[in-house]
Request: fold
Amino acid sequence: MRLPVLFILLTVMIDAMGIGLIVPVMPDLIQEVQGTGLGTAALWGGVLATTFAAMQFLFGPLLGALSDRFGRRPVLLSSLVVLCADYLVMAVAGSMWLLVAGRVVGGITAATQSTANAYMADISAPEEKAANFGLIGAAFGMGFVLGPVMGGFLAEYGTRAPFYAAAALAAANAVFGYLVLTETVNDRIRRPMSWWRANPLGVFWQLGRLPGLGPLLLVFFIYQVAFVVYPSIWAYYTAERFDWSPGMVGLSLGLFGVSMAIVQGGLIRPILRVLGERGAVIYGHVADVGVFLLIGVVSSGTLLLILTPIAALPAVITPALQGIMSKAVGDDQQGELQGALTSIAALATILSPLMMTSMFYTFTKADADLYIPGAPFFLAGALVAVALMVFLITHRSVKPADISDTLGS
Reply:
């Protein structure tokens, strides 16, 4: 494997590790800073996640446009440097408002995965795009494995230790990238900077003009709203339902990450050969509806652990959708598309944590009329069913874009 590709995969993996490292300690950290109970901590956790996502929504298209104009390398490296500083700030934060400020900065710089996807699209033939996006998904899954496990372990040394570890990882990867990363944006595909296309509304309007792409963006959005139930609720749900410790939360998320890496790094290729990209999207949605319903009703922590690797089987959805959409735009629009997908995922993450944590609070508070801690997962299953219906009703094959069509647009 070439060193630049290795750096791209490590960037995504370390980005996921940085997120996963802090997930197991967030309930305890928020309670430590605020002096509140678990239910209120879950609400604050939703606020932090929404703040982070709001910045991604606003700045994702800008960073995508910058990478189309100035290249992937400067965007990736500068994001890693600022991300390192962000984790250091959160490591010493003594108030919720400083934690919120840290999430503002972190959200602005969190373009690493979208820019990594654009880099992978730059170097991939059209028929390889979905499978190579799967490699990025696998790298993210491996980070999801290592991050929570390490976070659960480091939590034994205090709620701040994982933040220092995340900062160290970001710094080390920035140095590695500085030494090995080559640029893929050349004069043939370099796009002039346009502020109209560097904001969410502008980029959505521009991409929505491409035949068949609008419905796919809607399917991607609905699915992301549903998927965010995992980072939003998992730690709180398992603590409430099964009294899991941060270490156990980390191990369960690690198992989920291993399973996702296996699916997206290995199983996705034979699945795509047999089902094609459209079939893979349909299969993934159907499987996910069943998974969310099962998680919501499971009555034993042991059964939930057994179910966890099965929950990763629908993980082909995102790379298959990305593959379809990436072939619908020109080579000079890959950064723009990935910036738009970052904004869409961020918009989902703005809405979903508040929605999911509020539902969790409503159905687990002391005076709740009904005690249903799995209610957020039932909602996620319903959303996935809606996304599948939209896909089946509206999807049609899109003609691969020709760069000559997009350079003048």
Remarks:
- Residues 86 and 102 are 6 Å apart (CA to CA).
- The chain has a mean pLDDT of 81.
